[in-house]
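Dear Dr. H.,

I hope your travels went smoothly. While you were away I took the liberty of generating a structure for the chain from your last submission, since the lab meeting agenda had it listed for discussion. I wanted you to have the full record in hand beforehand rather than looking at slides cold. The sequence, exactly as received, is reproduced here:
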Amino acid sequence: MSLLDTGAAWLSDQLIDHASHAVAYTQGGTTIALRGTRSAELVRVQSTTGATMISRQTSFLFRTIDVTLTPQRGDLLAETVNGSTVYWEVTPDVSGTVWQYESAGEELIRIFVAEAAAWHR
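The corresponding predicted structure, in token form, is as follows:
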């Protein structure tokens, strides 16, 4: 492992250790407890007619080693922040993928979500 790899792994740990919230990740009948950092960004999407739309894309960053399930569309996340719970559903990003490695060393995984409908709660 190079010095840069070691530094990237350390930074990933710092992000999760100091800028994350409790997240319960549910897939089918299995729920795992994680610490994750939610982020949102604006992405540009070009339609087949050539029109450009701007969409808000929300995702969570987790330590790859902590995510013991392969993320799938429809999985549910419950994020607890200051005693309040927000529910999220795993949904594909604009490219159609539901997750990707976020770091070159694959220390972090990004899972794409949308706020879950009330019937999921």
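Two observations you may find useful: The longest strand covers residues 30-46. The longest helix spans residues 3-18.

With kind regards,
E. W.
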